[in-house]
Fold:
Amino acid sequence: MTVWRPRRLIGYWRSDDSPNWPDPIDFVDEQWDRDEREVVGSYLSRGRESAGMAWAGVSTCRFCGKMNGSAEYTDGTYVWPQGLSHYVTDHAVRLPTEVVAHILGIEENSLAIDQSWWRSAQPDWR
Structure:
């Protein structure tokens, strides 16, 4: 039996179409340890595409205009836009403490991203 688990959105930013989302400038932390940022950014870039979710257009970075993709990634707990790793590694946008702790806990314990829910949801997945 497949158990649906709600996932939390992270890394979605304010735009003309979504004025109530947070502004990434409010999360810049230039003092954030570079090595930790790299671990978090690497983790985010290795997420799995979220059930075929992709948006109609490519998102651009709110800081530098870089094209950040149109896919949505997940690890089974959180869901984030494809370009979130760029914000973290290139612009020192620090994610909430609970998200960073979640990511570091997985990485530090050398655990792979929990993919059991993928396997149960997609029987042909290998």
Notes: The beta strands are 8-9, 48-54, 71-74, 78-81. The chain has one domain: 8-13+22-114. Helices lie at 34-45, 84-91, 97-108, 116-121.
